Amino acid sequence: MKRRLELIGTVAGVTLYDDFAHHPTAVAETLSGLRASNPGSRIWAVFEPRSASSCRRVFQNAFARAFSAADEVLLAPVFRSTLPEADRLSVPQLVRDVNHSGGSAREADSIDDIIVAIVREHRPGDLVVIMSNGGFGGIHEKLLRALA
């Protein structure tokens, strides 16, 4: 099915997937399913909080739990940055919460920062899941080109 763990390509031993996941339940299920079918692989979760719901603080704690099946979590800035801060998902807090629970998360300032991190740190056999309900600035093709 299009945009549900859709295989985009494999370059330099890194397999790239696209997923429409934008709610904590969808993120958790996508990553859990990928982990179950690839228990020995390193999984990168690259998430863009873009949808009306994923940009909201109401899901702050649920998102922290949702990334538990990923080995590396890269978080893009909140797309709807005009939301009042009290209502907006806090990416820095999400990073702290994931790391506090034993995960490995970090905030990225841009798509280019995400690409640089993956290109610099990837290993053959890595699985990268790009999660957003939008185009995420063309990150899929940019990452494939950079890995090549």
Describe the structure.
With 148 residues, the protein is of the alpha/beta class. The chain has a single domain, classed as Alpha-Beta Complex (Protein-Tyrosine Phosphatase, Chain A). It has five helices and six strands. The protein has a six-stranded mixed beta sheet, with helices on both faces. Strand 1 and strand 2 (14-19) form a beta hairpin. Helix 1 packs parallel to helix 2 (60-66), helix 2 (60-66) crosses helix 3 (91-100) and helix 4 packs parallel to helix 5. It starts with 5 loop residues before the first strand and ends with a helix. The model has no long low-confidence stretch (mean pLDDT 95).
What is the strand and helix layout of this fold?
Elements: E1 6-11, E2 14-19, H1 24-37, E3 43-47, H2 60-66, E4 72-75, H3 91-100, E5 105-107, H4 111-121, E6 127-131, H5 139-147
Parallel strand pairs: 2-6, 3-4, 3-6, 4-5
Antiparallel strand pairs: 1-2
The CATH architecture assignment turns out to be: Alpha-Beta Complex
The CATH topology label is: Protein-Tyrosine Phosphatase, Chain A
Number of DSSP-assigned strands: 6
Kindly state the mean pLDDT as a whole number? 95
* Strand arrangement across the biggest beta sheet: 1-2-6-3-4-5
- Tell me, briefly, the overall form: globular
In total, the number of domains comes to 1
Number of helices: 5
- Largest β-sheet summary: 6 strands, mixed
Question: Based on helices, strands and strand pairing, what is the structural class?
Answer: alpha/beta
